[in-house]
Amino acid sequence: MTTRTEPASPLVVPPATTVPGRARPAAPLRREGPEKLTGTALYTDDIVVPGAWYGATVRSTDAHATFDALDLDPDFDWSKVVVVTAADIPGDNIVSSIKADQPILVPVGGEIQHHAEPLALIAAPDRATLREARHRAKPRTTKLPAVFDPAASDHVFASYSIDLGDPDAAFGAADHVIEGEYRVGHQEQLYIENNAMIAVPTDGGGVTVTGSLQCPYYLHEALKRGLGLDDQAARVIQAETGGGFGGKEEFPSVIGLHAALLARKAQKPVRMIYDRHEDIAATTKRHPAIVRHRTGVTRDGKLIAQDIEVVMDGGAYCTLTPVVLSRGTIHAGGPYRCPNVRIRARATRTNTPPNGAFRGFGAPQTEFAAETHLNRIAERLGISPLDIRRRNVYQPGDTTPTGQILRDSVAGEEVLERAAEAAEFSRIRERTGDARRGRAGSGSVPGSALRTERDRTASGIGIALAWHGAGFTGSGEIKLASVASLELTAEGRVRILTGSTEMGQGTKTIFPQLVADALGVPEADVEIAPQDTAYVPDSGPTVASRTAMVVGGLLIKAALRLRDRVEVETGHPFAEGAAAYARDHGATRIDQQFEPYPGGTPFDDTTYTGDAYPAFGWAACVARVDVDLDTGEVDVRDVVAADDVGRVIHPVLAEGQVEGGTLQAVGYATIEEIKLRDGRYLNDRLATYIIPTALDAPRIETILVEAPFAGAPHGAKGVGELPMDVGAPAVVAAIADATGVWVTDLPASPERILAALADRPAAAGLRPAESEPARELAS
Amino acid sequence: VTAYQFVVNGTAAEVDVPGMRRLLDVLREDLALTGTKEGCGEGECGACTVLVDGAPVDSCLVPICQVGGADVRTVEGLAPVAGDLDALQQAFLVTGGAQCGICTPGMLMAARAYLDAGGGPDDGAIRESIAGNLCRCTGYTKIVEAIAMAASSGSPA
Predict the structure, then answer these.
(1) How far is CA A460 from the centre of its chain?
(2) Count of alpha carbons within 13 Å of A34, Cβ hemisphere only?
(3) Mutate which of B27, B86, B102 to test chain A, going by most A C-beta atoms within 10 A?
């Protein structure tokens, strides 16, 4: 693959050791790479704990019911095992999160809110006994009517309104008013390592939980509340973590609490290791959403009014739904200037397993809708999808729907042009358009045995553009008040102390890189402390693409303070003076706490106005597909992704984020779908929930663009989530370019594509504007 | 219960376990070779791929009774010297072919079988050879690059 990296902009303050214009040193190799490549890295299930028991969860098989009793078969010897019910919970029976609505275990007499909800826990000294015991513990329930339609649910977890200008007046003045409705379903994170925890009871009633997780301090808080423990008695250690993607943000609090409760009652170490079936059936997914757009445009394609309604399905409990919805709401209009905007968004409760964090966090849902709608508007007006974006994309000085003025680091146009150019978008689109129009007159009958491969294969190209707010939404970072620490040990070593976790994205590689750069020492001389709440501070969760930008920025500031202290005291550069300083002063620790980025208008959570994010990242994607017109199968052949990440810290790792996120978006667009019946996931196995293989994956060309964020010392804005926002609408646009029909519900499965083609037999050759009135429903 | 004898990474091994015990469990729990991972337990993800007599298999689907007398190779046996990296592992490290690392051992074994069979740097052939191994982090781009790099460098078996 090819990567092009823009030269660093002179606007950014270079790290102390970097001379502007000089090539940066070669990026280091992944720090924990050798252990991962030789099989010596220890993931949770690899850790041997002598005498450990095995834990399992008794789950509901109803979507909504009363939990009347737990029947324990009298023919089984229950003294061989330990059973935990809600009555055994020493603290609050609450999974600590935004709202106190989710029980750790449903109490007898309480209400079951979703299929696979935890009702009781069992631990046994061996797996066979555990299986037997679980088989003989039977919940007795009485079914209640269940709600599965988020639009019909009257239990609202969160709702937001954004208002800018006067949309109603603007609709009256528009040349065209175009409407559309878009639906996206659940998506499973599908980290290859299932959720896993090992809890070990400690003297004095405490517990240490080691597991696969993104946010040690989330679980720490949950253990304190659920088990009634203090800061020291609850201890959380991150094991090597085999992927997260948001799926190990808040869910580890559930499985971690379960393991801890069993360990406490059994007074034995307990291993809770989900198998794939349980992991898919019971853990969080990306929120399904229904998004309606009504858009007023001028005849030359300028957006003048947007009216957007978003409904997200939160599932049975709140989890992180309010913040997922918040991000989805703020990004719902897409990266486009529009003076009159009304957005109404709500997330409601249904009797389905709770939905939660997944890379992109609400934005992929609403940006799929925004981009697909814009592509259909362009088609209606006879404007190219590239030109309509050129005419509307945010420029520096523009105002977003929350009233945020985009001052710097605005690179929407640049990523758009770079991706379009590299993919030869306009030239190829002319060719695919000619082919589509040619097919319409060929008389070739779909499904006919006379069809040649050439007749049935349609090629298409599509483009999409997205923005993604960097860091936590609104006042989130101020409330988090994260701390990152740096220590000069008594032996003169430099040690990083943060709660930020490595889950493959590269935290353990880039942190030493940033610190070494700021101190002027080799990267190998900087060590990193384990993610263990007994040692490291709360640096905030490892989510929201915030680690490189926010925590990395704190570490640079800490390093510059440490460097200054040593250099002033010793009169030598840090590298030469550090050993002497450590000898004279002993260990020195710098704690650096987050301070608001300078400038801007503080975000007001009640009016939804102000600066929603300190900066935005920008991403463009061009996808090329082949569609089999007889079977509806889609082959996503090539993707060009241009992503502005502020400043590239490590090109190989940054490309890896773009490539991986792009493929997750391609899966979301084409094959990943959860089917439900009566609130139960039907395809809760890897044989039935499918993700792209190496053969399904397109060739991906990554273009890293650098529009540095002046508020961070290193200019970085984050990368992980950007590609997830933009891939799906690009693929769906390419399918439309190939076939002439729009699939508005994800995934664009063969069934949906064939249904769309069948609805409009002549669609392959007709533009909607020729077959429909010029106003109202886009289709 | 019968004892099964086979060779793992060049060393003779004997386990006294039920014949239907999964090779994956024998490796991880009886022989403490935890480099081989379990991702799905039903042969879909390939995280548990090992070589049995040179052929890549999902060790979660192979009962130990089928392995008697066989030559088994796992990720722990790739590097000629413990703690070192072979050319394929080194290529993964350099290109960024490993991110979270959980699919990596299985991916390496599938790639090793491909290279040992004389596979070259052709993109399509490499993708075919790892089509049974799921990765959720990389988008496969850098994995394919790594295998192509090892193929071009004439990596020793």
Answers:
(1) 28
(2) 9
(3) B102
- Angular region, A600: left φ>0, alpha ψ -120 to 50, beta rest: left
Cβ distance A582 to A740 under 8 Å? no
Residues in A closer than 8 angstroms to B79, CB to CB, are: 38
CA dist A182 and A176 (Å) reads 19
Tell me the pLDDT tens digit for each residue of A577-621: 999 999 999 999 999 999 999 888 999 999 999 999 999 999 999
Nearest chain A Cα to B104, which residue? A37
Buried b (16+ CB within 10 A) or exposed e, A124-153: bbeeebbebbbebbebebeeeebbbebeeb
Q: Which residue type, as a one-letter code, is found at position A738?
A: A
DSSP letters along B78-144, please?
Answer: SSSSTT---HHHHHHHHHT--SS-SSHHHHHHHHHHHHHTT--S-HHHHHHHTTTS--SSSTTHHHH
Interface of B with A in 58-77 (CB under 8 A): 74-76
Provide the Cα torsion A544, A547, A549, A553; round to 10°. 150
Q: Do A42 and B128 touch (CB under 8 A)?
A: no
Q: What gap in Å lies between CA A279 and CA A44, rounded to an integer?
A: 15
List, for residues A477-494, the tens digit of each pLDDT value.
999 999 999 999 999 999
A260-299 pLDDT tens trace: 999 999 999 999 999 999 999 999 999 999 999 999 999 9
Q: Which of B58, B100, B126, B129 to mutate to test the interface with A (most CBs of A within 10 A)?
A: B100
Do the chains contact at B76 and A192, CB–CB below 8 Å? no
Confidence class of residue A5 from pLDDT cuts 50, 70 and 90? Answer: very low
* Each residue's pLDDT tens digit, B42-66: 999 999 999 999 999 999 999 999 9
Which residue type does A47 have?
I
Cβ(B142)–Cβ(A659) below 8 Å? yes
Q: A residues 648-677 near B, CB within 8 Å?
A: 652-653, 655-656, 659-664
Instruction: Report CB contact under 8 Å: A659, B131.
Output: no
On whether any CB of chain B is under 8 Å from the CB of A226, the answer is no
Q: Which of A36, A45, A662 sits opposite B101 (nearest CB)?
A: A36
Asked if residue A318 has pLDDT above 60, the reply is: yes
| Residue A775, pLDDT score | 44
Strand partners, A54: A124, A271
Given a cut of 50, whether residue A750 has pLDDT beyond it is yes
Question: How far is the alpha carbon of A323 from chain B, nearest alpha carbon, in Å?
Answer: 24
ipTM of the complex: 0.98
For A692, the closest chain B residue by CA position comes to B134
Interface contact A126, partner B, CB < 8 A: no
Query: Buried b vs exposed e over A98-120: b needs ≥16 C-beta within 10 Å?
Result: eeebbbbbbebeeebbbbbbbbb
**Looking up tokens 């608001």, which residue turns up?**
A596
Instruction: State residue B21 phi and psi, 5-degree precision.
Output: -60, 135
The reply to whether A139 touches chain B by the CB within 8 Å rule is no
E strands along A242-389, which residues? 270-273, 289-297, 303-313, 341-348
Interface of B with A in 4-63 (CB under 8 A): 28, 32-42, 44-45, 47
Residues 131-150 of B with CB under 8 A from A: 131-145
- Would you say A119 and A106 are in contact if contact means Cβ atoms under 8 Å apart? yes
Closest CA to A626 of A771, A554, A503, A731: A731
Q: How far, in Å, are A479, A687, B18, B49, B92 from residue B57 at the CA level? A: 50, 17, 20, 5, 21
On chain A, the residues whose CB falls within 8 A of the CB of B104 are 36-37
Q: Residue A509's closest chain B neighbor by CA?
A: B99
Residues of chain B with pLDDT under 50: 155-157
